[in-house]
Design goal:
Blueprint: E1 7-9, H1 18-31, E2 36-40, H2 53-63, E3 69-73
Parallel strand pairs: 1-2, 2-3
Helix pairs in contact: 1-2
Protein name: LLM class flavin-dependent oxidoreductase
Length: 82
């Protein structure tokens, strides 16, 4: 069994710092040698703006080299099929 890991959820809400906050947080997580970053799929019906979860992880992937990325929850039913 491996040890306990520590991860961080990236900011995706309007109260976050937007795309620069996502990239900055992902870089800080990697520098701190934490174990993962995750992103929840924020579906708010009241019009509250939130960044798209797939785009957030794509930005984090482009800015980092070793930190694992994952979705906390991804609502597939909210996305169109290919």
């Amino acid at each position: 069994m491996s040890g306990l890991g520590l991860g961080v959820t990236l900011p995706v809400s309007a109260s976050g710092r937007g795309p620069s906050g996502v990239v900055g947080t992902a870089c800080l997580v990697e520098q701190a040698e934490l174990d993962a970053v995750s992103v929840p799929d924020v579906l708010v019906g009241d019009g509250t703006p939130a960044l798209e979860a797939v785009a957030v992880l794509a930005a984090a992937a482009a800015a980092t080299e070793r930190v694992p990325l994952d979705f906390g929850v991804l609502a597939l039913s909210a996305r169109s099929t290919v």
